[in-house]
Amino acid sequence: MTALKLDGKAAAAQVKEDLRQRVKRLAAAGSRPGLGTILVGDDPGSMKYVEGKHRDCQEVGIRSIRVDLPGDADADRITQAVRSLNENPDCTGYIVQLPLPEGVDPTAVIDQIDPVKDADGMHPYNLGQLVLHTDGRVATPLPCTPRGILWLLDHYGIDLNGKEVCVLGRGLTVGRTVGLMLTNRSVNATVTLCHTGTPDPASAMRRADLIIAAVGQAGFVRAGDVKPGAVLVDVGVSRVWDEDQGRWRIKGDIDPAAREVCSAYTPNPGGVGPMTRAMLLANVVDTAERQAGL
After folding, report:
1. Which of 5, 25, 106, 208 has the most other CB atoms within 10 Å of its CB?
2. How far is it, in rounded angstroms, from Cα 143 to Cα 278?
3. 171-210 pLDDT, tens digit each
4. How far is residue 290's CA from residue 173's CA, in Å, rounded to a whole number?
5. Residue from 6, 65, 2, 74 nearest 38 by CA
6. CATH 3.40.50.10860 location in the chain
7. SS3 string of the chain?
8. Prior bond to 99 cis, omega within 30?
């Protein structure tokens, strides 16, 4: 059996086309969404990620608002930038790019974001709404990566009703939040969350119809850990030195050999990453539509 490749690039392109049409409708109603970013310092990975977000904005017609601060910016200066975007009527939603400088508490900064403009869906108020609405009908921004994962699976017709899911990693971006979305009534899956305190994660993986790996350990999920016919979603990213090619390469949490066992898989890169960026745009457009009454 040849496993189905869940192509995040192709699916994200479809999301963007839909967003382009929605942005046009908003423009006809006298409204234009705006995505803001706050970047502190010159970390190459963060800079590349932020630049990609602004290219995405251009693709779909969303206003792009960029705030760049020096690497020595303190908490007060970062908070001032947050408040300026809270008050900016051109900004429908924005993100604070992590990591922040040492000594600056990212949670305290995120707390200052207007929940309505929380494009990442990570403000405590929005996470609380996700917890409260077990029917999945949430009228607040959703966490981008979990939303992208579920959109991608649905796009390829993968039904999770009654299925067993193993989530690897308890980080807020994916592990802790994707379980909330998987267990709401509209998805209806059963979730086992594995982390460093789990004595035998391999047994949970072998039971699972779907494995979502977000631990940041290259090749953590091996072919022997996968139930035949399971679906594999690879979120983790590691930089690994390739001796043969003499350069760093990006590798995911799932060993490519596991694709010989599974029924479907996300490539890494090219799977979950493009969907995460597309869902960031979707959160911004969703907010603009709510504000415009569309």
Report:
1. 208
2. 12
3. 999 999 999 999 999 999 999 999 999 999 999 999 999 9
4. 24
5. 65
6. 28-116
7. CCCEECCHHHHHHHHHHHHHHHHHHHHHCCCCCEEEEEEECCCHHHHHHHHHHHHHHHHHCCEEEEEEECCCCCHHHHHHHHHHHHHCCCCCEEEECCCCCCCCCHHHHHHCCCHHHECCCCCHHHHHHHHHCCCCCCCCCCCHHHHHHHHHHHHCCCCCCCCEEEEECCCCCCHHHHHHHHCCCCCCCEEEEECCCCCCHHHHHHHCCEEEECCCCCCCECHHHCCCCCEEEECCCEEEEECCCCEEEEECCECHHHHHCCCEECCCCCCHHHHHHHHHHHHHHHHHHHHHCC
8. yes
Pick the range with the lowest mean pLDDT from 4-8, 245-249, 261-265.
245-249
Q: Which amino acid is at 275?
A: M
Amino acid identity for residue 154 in this structure: D
Domain with CATH 3.40.50.720 in the chain: 128-273
Q: Are 6 and 271 in contact (CB under 8 A)?
A: yes
Domain 28-116 architecture: 3-Layer(aba) Sandwich (3.40)
The per-residue pLDDT for range 40-66, each reduced to its tens digit, is 999 888 899 899 999 999 999 999 999
* Chain centre distance of CA 285: 16
**Contact at 8 Å (CB) between 92 and 284?**
yes
Q: Report the sign of the C-alpha dihedral through residues 37, 150, 99, 87, in that order.
A: positive
Closest CA to 236 of 214, 258, 266: 214
- d(CA 142, CA 134) in angstroms, rounded, equals 14
Strands lying side by side in the sheet with 210-213: 4-5, 264-265, 231-234, 210-213, 164-168, 190-194
